[in-house]
Automatic annotation (TrEMBL):
UniProt-recorded Gene Ontology molecular function terms: transferase activity
InterPro entries: Acyl_CoA_acyltransferase (IPR016181), BioF2-like_GNAT_dom (IPR038740)
SUPFAM superfamilies per record: Acyl-CoA N-acyltransferases (Nat)
Domain of life: Bacteria
Key words, A-Z: Transferase
Residue ranges that the Swiss-Prot or TrEMBL entry lists as coiled coil: none
Annotated ranges, domain BioF2-like acetyltransferase: 155-296
Organism encoding this protein: Streptomyces paludis
Designated name of the protein: GNAT family N-acetyltransferase
Length: 358
């Protein structure tokens, strides 16, 4: 095994990564591709990739991207913004999590969106969560028909709001893959305002995240490409979303809208247009990402299982990791699993956010 910075991966190693990933049978989530890891590596100096090699041939048979912190504490690459995490390994590799952590000189490896099927790490998970998805594999018409049956009031209301938006504000136009940098800046400004308004940490106030998003917006690899989708009214953007796509999966990442148009539910209109355009582009699955939200419940057709927790190597440093992380994680889980309490917590955060922006 050797450990390299993401930028030091050779193209042969990156191609081996892609081939292993393609044979895994897992959904082709773009966060699991070498392009995402390389992009994170360009803005996170402590990003690394463990390259596992076949003892006989020396050829790469596994990859684990991670970031290394103090005292050997590791975390999934891009933790906090990456919506799908794990390693890419040849089936039946016969490697244990402890051996892998030892080879990386890690006392722990933390994750919060570990994909299902990660046999090395799932046993170390502390909680299992759902990542809602929209399945348009049978085409958008089939999805819309099912949505009309499952949530008739929701669909009628959203369609009516789109017609009303067109009548009252101007022509409604949708662009699935917008290349205008100004539209991306608008989306990021909306999202920052939303974070502050709801009392959450503004991700775009962190320079590395802003730079990463701009870098990925220019990425056009077949299995990891940035996609900016924008809903315009009279050529004015009113809702937008930036995510990553592979050939078959669109990983939804940063949606936002102009609050001035909130009564028209432009975010919902945008997501339905995205689902239609994605199906037309050969994408079969839109991954909405973990976390509860009414719009996800309305749009989803099912869900994927993801996990949070940490694989640890026995020792004093592992104990320190447990003490620093586990009490906080358990408190978050306690609140998240109680809708009433979670709603109260969100309302409190929103009140605090309104006070901060005054």
């Amino acid at each position: 095994m050797c450990v390299v910075a993401p930028g030091e991966l050779s193209e042969a190693e990156a191609e081996a990564w892609r081939e292993l990933r393609a044979r895994s049978g897992a959904p082709a989530n773009p966060f699991m591709e070498p392009e995402f890891t390389r992009a994170v590596g360009s803005v996170r100096p402590r990003a690394r990739v463990a390259v596992v090699q076949d003892a006989g041939t020396g050829e790469p048979v596994g990859f684990l991207p991670y970031e290394k912190g103090r005292l050997g504490r590791g975390r999934a690459i891009g933790l906090g913004v990456s919506d799908c995490q794990g390693g890419v390994f040849r089936p039946g590799l016969g490697l244990s999590a402890r051996e892998l952590l030892t080879g990386c000189s890690l006392s722990a490896w933390e994750f919060d969106n570990l994909e299902a099927g990660q046999e090395l790490f799932v046993p170390a998970a502390a909680a299992a969560l759902e990542s809602p998805v929209i399945d348009v594999g049978a085409g958008y018409a089939a999805y819309e028909s099912a949505l009309r049956v499952r949530s008739p009031k929701f669909f009628r209301t959203t369609a009516a709001k789109e017609r009303k938006l067109g009548r009252q504000a101007g022509e409604v136009r949708f662009v699935f893959d917008e290349r205008d940098p100004a539209a991306l800046r608008t989306l990021m400004a909306w999202k920052s305002a939303q974070y502050r308004r709801t009392g959450r940490r503004d991700r775009f106030a962190q320079v590395w995240i802003s730079v990463l998003v701009r870098r990925l917006a220019a990425t056009r690899a077949p299995d990891c490409a940035g996609v900016l989708s924008v809903l315009y009214v009279a050529d004015r953007p009113v809702a937008a979303h930036f995510g990553l796509r592979s050939r078959t999966v669109l990983s939804c990442w940063f949606p936002a809208y102009d609050p001035e148009f909130a009564k028209y539910s432009p975010g919902l209109i945008l997501h339905l247009r995205m689902a239609e355009a994605a199906a037309g582009a050969g994408i079969g699955l839109l991954d909405l990402g973990r976390g509860a939200a009414e719009y996800k419940d309305a749009l989803k057709t099912g869900g994927l299982r993801v996990y949070e927790g940490a694989a640890v190597r026995p020792g004093a440093r592992a104990a320190l990791h447990w003490l620093s992380r586990e009490p906080s994680r358990r408190a978050h889980t306690f609140v998240r699993n109680r809708p009433g309490l979670a709603g109260y917590a969100q309302a409190t955060l929103s009140r605090m956010g309104r006070l901060r922006v005054r």
